[in-house]
Amino acid sequence: MAKQWDVVIIGGGLSGLVGANCLTQSQLSVLVIEKGKKFGGRARTDSINNQLFNIGPHALYKKGEAKSILEQLGIELHGKSPKLGGLLIDEKVKYSAPFNPIGVFTTCFFNWKERMQWIKALVKILNTKTDSISQQSFLQWVEGVSSSKSVQTVLLSLGRLATYCHAPAHVSAKVIVTQLKAVMSGVIYLDGGWQSMIDQLYNKALMKGTEVRSHQTVKQILPMFSEKDTAFDITLANGESISTRNIISTTGPRELLKMLGEYAPSVMKDFFAQMEPVKGATLDVALTKLPDPSKLFALGIHAPLYYSVHSTYAQLSEHSNNVILHVYKYLQPDELVEAKSVQLELEQFLETIQPGWKQYEITSRFIPYITVNERLPLVGDELRLESSKPAVPGLYLSGDWTSPYSILSEAAVSSAQQAAIGIIQKEKS
Ligand SMILES: Cc1cc2nc3c(=O)[nH]c(=O)nc-3n(C[C@H](O)[C@H](O)[C@H](O)COP(=O)(O)OP(=O)(O)OC[C@H]3O[C@@H](n4cnc5c(N)ncnc54)[C@H](O)[C@@H]3O)c2cc1C
C-alpha cells in the first residue's frame, strides 16, 4: 500500500516552509512539494555575479506578525533598519521627504498649513481603528484625512510603498492602513537577503523530519469524500499519485482552481477566478560605488516609482563596498507593460538620483512584470474570503492572498500558521 501522508504542503515558498515548521511539533507526517528547482518562491534571493538580489525590494516589518511568528519558530533575522527620510521626486524636481521630523519641517513640497495637515495625517494612521474603515477604499480614506492635494498625494505614495498596491480607488482602506501602521514602526533589510530566512526554515523543517521534493508540480487534487473524513489523491505532473489526509495549498488562486478542476466549490470558483494580482516591474542593480552616497531612498510622487539602497543596511555582497539597490515601478491592475520603455523609465529615475551610475555597474537584472501579491485586496474581499475558505474539509489555504486582513509576507506567514493550527486541532479531535 502506498503511504498516506498526514499533510502535503503544495508549494515551498515562504508560506509553505512556515507551514511545515509550524507542524514539526505535531508528530504528523509532512511532505512539501515545490515545482521550482529551488525552494523559496518569491522570497528567494538569487546570487548574480556574487551579488545577492532579492526578487525586487524586500523589507520585513519590524513589528509585524510575520517577524514575530518567524522568531517563535527560532528563525534568526539579522539586518538593519533603513533610516527614515530620503527624497520625493516630482518630474525631475527633488524634495526632502516628510518621513522624519527634519523632513517634515524642511520639505518644500508642503507649505506650513500642509505640514500641519501632514502631521495630523500621520497621527491619524496610527490612531485609526481599522475595523471602522472596512467598507472604504483607500482613496476615500485618504480624501477624508486631508483636503490638501499635496498631502493626499504623499499619503497615496506611502500607501504604495507599504503595500505595492497601485489602485487606491479599489483597494481596501482597512488592509492598506493596517500595513501602513506596520511600516511606520520600521522595517528591516535582511543580511544575506530573504534567502537567509528561507534557508533556516528549510533546514529546520528537514531536521525535524519534514520530507521535501523540489522540481515536481502538482497537477490535480482529487478530494475523496467519505462519511468519516475527507482524504485526497494528489497527482503530480510525472503521473505519480500521492495520498494525504490534509493539504495546505500555498499556490495562487488560479493555480488552485486548476488543480481542483470540477471539484472546486462554486463559492471558490467565482471569487478566486476574479482575483487580480498586484504586479510590478523591478530593476535590481549592483554597483562598485554610489555616485552620490547621501541619496539612499526616494519615492516618485506622481510617477509610481521607488528607489532604495539596501546594502547600506544589509550584507548583500562579499565586498562590503559594493552597493545593491532596487528601483521599482508599481503597476496598476491591467496595466500593459512595454518592457523596454519601463526599463528605460527605471534607469532614468535612477539617473535622476544617481547621475552616472552606469559607469559603476557590476551587474543588473530587470524583471518587467512580476507578481508581488497574488490578490489585490479589494473592498469587500474580507467577507468573501472568510466564507469561501472552509469549503473543502481537510483542504487549507495559505499564502499572501488568503488572509482577509493582511497581504505580502504578513499574510503568507500568518495564514500558514493558521492552517497548521487548524490541521493540528482537526487531527486531535
Ligand atoms: C518585487 C517584490 C517585492 C516584494 N516586497 C515585499 C516586501 O517588501 N515585504 C513583504 O512582506 N513582502 C514582499 N513581497 C511579497 C513576498 O515576497 C510574498 O508575499 C511571499 O514571498 C509569498 O510567499 P508565498 O509562499 O505565499 O508564495 P510564493 O512565494 O509564490 O510560493 C508559492 C510556491 O508554490 C509553488 N507552486 C505553485 N504551484 C505549484 C504546483 N502546482 N505544484 C508545486 N508547487 C507549486 C511555487 O513555485 C512557489 O515556490 C514582494 C514580492 C515581490 C515579487
TrEMBL record:
Residue ranges of domain Amine oxidase in the record: 14-420
Gene3D superfamilies: 3.90.660.50, FAD/NAD(P)-binding domain
GO MF assignments: oxidoreductase activity
Keywords associated with the record: Oxidoreductase
Source species taxonomy: Bacteria, Bacillati, Bacillota, Bacilli, Bacillales
Family statement drawn from the similarity comment of this UniProt entry: Belongs to the carotenoid/retinoid oxidoreductase family. CrtN subfamily.
TM helices/strands, residue ranges: none
Cofactor(s) it depends on: FAD
Keyword field contains DNA-binding: no
PANTHER family linked: PHYTOENE DESATURASE
Protein name (Swiss-Prot/TrEMBL): Amine oxidase domain-containing protein
Binding of FAD, residues: S15, V218
